[in-house]
Design a protein that fits this description.
By secondary structure, this protein is an alpha/beta fold. Helix content is 37%, strand content 22%. It folds into 2 domains: 167 residues, 3-Layer(aba) Sandwich (Rossmann fold); 174 residues, Dihydrodipicolinate Reductase, domain 2. It is built from 16 helices and 16 strands. Strands 7, 8, 9, 10, 11, 12, 13, 14 and 16 form a 9-stranded mixed β-sheet that branches. A 7-stranded parallel β-sheet has the order 3-2-1-4-5-6-15, with helices on both faces. The N and C termini lie far apart (50 Å).
């Protein structure tokens, strides 16, 4: 049964964060503090959790100890929790225990995963469990995945369907990536290198797709060569929008760099730094040849991912969302959610393509 106390007696929601000691987790704690919410920190290392809580301004926050290899402890840790936010790296290898325990405990769930393979499990395997438990799962909330899904919903409705959608995340600024992101890529290296799934004519397909080999990114006069790249909205957009094709792409040179990415790189990575600004660019091409472009721009990829996850968690805690594993556009009003991000310096627009 869904934990509905948060929205029936107006108490502040009980939100648990698993992965709070990580880079994105720290931003999630900061956003919860800004909202006046004190989270429950869950993990395996009490000392690190207490340091994270104190650094975020929660010296008295409740700490619950539960490792990923202890389902009973995880279940106990998520009891009487309204929403679980998971900010782990490498969900394909680490993510399932938290997701499974949240559902079993009767808590809503969201995460910051960026992997198609994990999202597929969250939707297909854990969706029926969530529906039976009366809880909502919204997996894959990141600075590219969530706006990709929401903008896909909005943009496709501005062209005659079925639409063809292609999207890409373009990173800018001086910030650097996190070790967690590198661990995520390494855990699913073959899938990342191969480009993952694209959606075409009613089914998910692997293998090459060169329908859109070039994209002209915002601020660039000339088109950039791109290659297919795994993007989770490929799985979610067809759930709520009339489309014949959905694919993610990335600059071809960036994809080529993955060829030399090995576990040894982890030891050479610098500490992550803020300022990794970005554009999430999505083109919706109509059946009559018309095109609209949707862009969400943000100042910091990791901070913005955490803010989106907290926004999703707070909305889930408020109730009113149907049970099951849902795409962001199935769980939330797309334009309303995107507008809420403007407060944090994230802007979005949909225009006719140049």
């Amino acid at each position: 049964m869904t934990n509905t106390a948060a929205h029936t007696n107006h108490r502040k929601p009980a939100i648990a964060v698993y992965g709070a000691t990580g880079y994105t987790g720290g931003y999630a704690l900061a956003e919860l503090r800004r909202r006046g919410l004190t989270p429950i920190l869950v993990g395996r290392d009490e000392e690190r959790l207490r340091k994270a809580a104190a650094a975020a301004g929660f010296p008295e926050a409740e700490i619950r100890i539960a490792g990923l290899d202890d389902p009973a402890a995880l279940l106990a840790a998520f009891r009487e929790v309204d929403v679980v936010i998971s900010t782990l790296p490498a969900y394909v290898t680490l993510g399932e225990p938290v997701l499974a325990a949240a559902i079993a405990a009767g808590a809503h769930y969201t995460d910051t995963s960026g992997e198609q393979l994990f999202l597929s499990k969250a939707l297909d395997e854990y969706g029926p469990r969530a529906e039976a438990a009366g809880v909502t799962v919204v997996s894959g909330v990141t600075n590219s995945n969530l706006p990709g899904d929401l903008l896909g919903h909005l943009a496709a409705r501005q062209v005659p369907g079925p639409a063809e959608i292609v999207m890409s995340l373009v990173t800018r600024g001086s910030g650097s990536g996190s070790r967690g992101s590198a661990e995520t890529v390494l855990a699913g290296m073959d899938w990342f290198r191969a480009g993952g799934w694209h959606y075409e004519d009613g089914e998910l397909r692997t293998g090459p797709s060169d329908r859109y080999p070039l994209m002209t990114f915002p601020g660039n006069a000339e088109p950039t060569a791109v290659a297919k790249f795994q993007q989770p909205p490929v799985l979610t957009i067809p759930r709520h929008t009339e489309v014949s094709y959905v694919a993610g792409v990335v600059e071809a040179t960036m994809l080529a760099q993955l060829a030399g990415f090995t576990p040894d790189v982890l030891d050479l990575l610098p500490e992550p730094s803020p300022g990794l600004s970005y554009d999430l660019v999505l083109d919706a091409n109509g059946a009559d040849g018309t095109t609209v472009r949707a862009v969400l721009s943000g100042p910091d990829a990791y901070r913005d991912t955490a803010i989106m996850a907290v926004e999703a968690a707070v909305r889930l805690a408020a109730g009113g969302t149907r049970a099951g594993s849902l795409a962001p556009a199935e769980a939330f009003d797309p334009a309303e959610f995107l507008d809420a991000l403007r407060f944090h310096g994230m802007t979005w627009q949909i225009t006719s393509a140049q």
